[in-house]
Specification:
135 residues; two-stranded antiparallel ribbon
Length: 135
């Protein structure tokens, strides 16, 4: 299902790309997003697990990019936040005797697969640096 995780993650990484030599605190990042720092830290943990950022604790601590923004594709960011995009399926099991019901989920799955390939293709063509240049 679609959520705001990708937007939050891109916001964090775009902000970090604007200050490549600085460790930014989760409070500073959260202030840019009008989010609670705990929600930012949750996404930072995922980025750290994926070796995109590094964190340092303490008075001058915070987070910064491990890689150049030009070496990070939006597709790789997307894949860190979601496996795939799905618009969902009905909660009820469709009627297998119905012309539509017996194939609806299979056809939706094929549609979602096509959408994900197109999303990946589009996002692969843009780096974090390309995106960050808009700001």
């Amino acid at each position: 299902m679609i959520s705001g995780k990708f937007a939050i993650t891109v916001h964090i990484l775009t902000l970090l790309s604007k200050f490549p030599d600085d460790y930014l605190s989760s409070e500073f990042i959260a202030g840019s997003m009008n989010l609670h720092p705990v929600l930012v830290r949750k996404e930072i943990a995922n980025l750290k697990k994926n070796n995109i950022i590094e964190s340092k604790e303490g008075k001058n601590g915070g987070t910064k990019l491990l890689k150049s923004a030009s070496d990070i594709s939006l597709d790789s960011i997307f894949k860190m936040t979601f496996d795939t995009v799905t618009l969902g399926f009905s909660k009820n099991k469709p009627n297998p005797d119905c012309l539509v019901g017996k194939k609806i989920n299979e056809n939706l799955e094929n549609l979602y697969d096509t959408l994900n390939k197109k999303i990946s293709l589009e996002l692969s063509a843009m780096s974090l640096a390309d995106f960050a240049s808009k700001f």
